[in-house]
Amino acid sequence: MRTFSLAAATGLTGLMAGLFFAYTCSVMPGLAAVDDRTFVGTMQSINRRILNGWFLAAFLGAALLIGVAAALHLTVGGPVLAWTVAALGCYGATLVITMRLSVPLNDRLDAAGPVDRIADLRAVRESFESTWVRWNLLRTVTNVAAFACLVAALLSRRT
What we know:
Elements: H1 2-32, H2 36-49, H3 53-72, H4 78-111, H5 121-126, H6 129-156
Helix pairs in contact: 1-3, 1-6, 3-4, 4-6
């Protein structure tokens, strides 16, 4: 059960790191090149549609499984536990950034209303884009760090 929970946590954390990295290196740079109407409408649509079972299972499941893996390794101790606890801290930072910073920005963007009814699309975009991109980059880093820690935990089980 210890190995399974650690491997599953690593897999889900890797999926989330990949998702955030894709936004960092392709989605947001691609959207940076479009007009304000396209940007706002696209981000509103993405933010609504990402709230689905697949995303939530990976996003919340990673946190749960890292916690389970850490708890199951409490009696073992050593580097596996240390790396898993480090991963828990890094992924915890990802959760905080997402829930306290990214989600409120997404909610504000959605509250602006349908793009056809927004009087100043430029202002809506400017109040969202650079801040969201900055926080997404940070959560990409924290999530990749969590993934790296879990890989290290798995590798340390073999020694």
